[in-house]
């Protein structure tokens, strides 16, 4: 997969090619990156890429022509690389929210992607109307420019490319099944008086899976209740899921509250706690 980024600050994107999962995927040839500076497509001594808005108002507006020429150059480079189709995405606070489904669709597609990173007060609307296929937002807040949002989009898409992660890792992440992920625990078994839930130490894989599903439902209902309704509409919730959601809010299978707990002292305690997780969940 190839990303071409229209940006005034190309060095920011070195973070993706120099670190972590995206670096490994980049070095493995799973994705490619090229950056294009709109200043390189200007024709004045000052390399001007912005000007005052018509009608007055604060801030400056990015000019349409340098951006259009930069996108044309990126498209031509993608064609030369054998990419038959290009999708142009502008990162914008006015865009549609970037979702896990959209990320996975981009990763599964065969189009090259051109990301346009705005700066200043905004981008000339005529460029957006004629060159941009979609506008995308990473949240209801304002950034200094589109670069950080573009980096988030690239990171999210790259980790879904085949070979970037172990298949199970991507399949079990938050949003993969319409819900938030279950909480995770590691060593030591007791940390500052707080124990790992006994079911996770039991070795019973079916009970662990039930516990994790219940916890996923609980976290989603508490933190992102709109995702529960969306999952319900998409038919992603089973009858047992619905029973868990209807269960007593003070049930036995919740995320441990902020109180000291003891580590399980016997296999019997493990089994007792594990069985309590079947079909019940605590909303905290």
Structural summary, described in words:
With 284 residues, this protein is of the alpha/beta class. The chain has 2 domains: 2-167, SPOUT methyltransferase, trefoil knot domain (Alpha/beta knot, 3-Layer(aba) Sandwich); 174-276, tRNA(m1g37)methyltransferase, domain 2 (Trp Operon Repressor, Chain A, Orthogonal Bundle). It is built from 11 helices and 10 strands. The strands form 3 sheets. It has a 5-stranded parallel sheet with strand order 2-1-6-5-8. Strands 3-4-7 form a 3-stranded mixed sheet. A two-stranded antiparallel ribbon has the order 9-10. The longest helix is centred in the C-terminal third of the chain and has 19 residues, at 205-223. The relative contact order is 0.12.
Please identify the top-level CATH class of the largest domain: Alpha Beta
Examine the coordinates and then state which fold CATH places here, giving the name of the CATH topology of the largest domain: Alpha/beta knot
Task: Please state the second-level CATH architecture of the largest domain.
Answer: 3-Layer(aba) Sandwich
Q: What order do the helices and strands follow? A: EHHEEEHEHEEHEHHEEHHHH
Q: How would a textbook summarize the main sheet?
A: 5 strands, parallel
**Euclidean distance between termini CA atoms:** 41 Å
Q: Total domains, how many?
A: 2
Low-confidence stretches: 252-284
Continuous helix count: 11
CATH superfamily (homologous) name of the largest domain? SPOUT methyltransferase, trefoil knot domain
Task: Lay out the secondary structure.
Blueprint: E1 2-6, H1 14-18, H2 20-27, E2 32-36, E3 50-51, E4 61-62, H3 64-80, E5 86-97, H4 100-108, E6 112-117, E7 122-123, H5 125-131, E8 134-137, H6 147-158, H7 167-171, E9 190-191, E10 194-195, H8 205-223, H9 225-233, H10 239-246, H11 267-276
Parallel strand pairs: 1-2, 1-6, 4-7, 5-6, 5-8
Antiparallel strand pairs: 3-4, 9-10
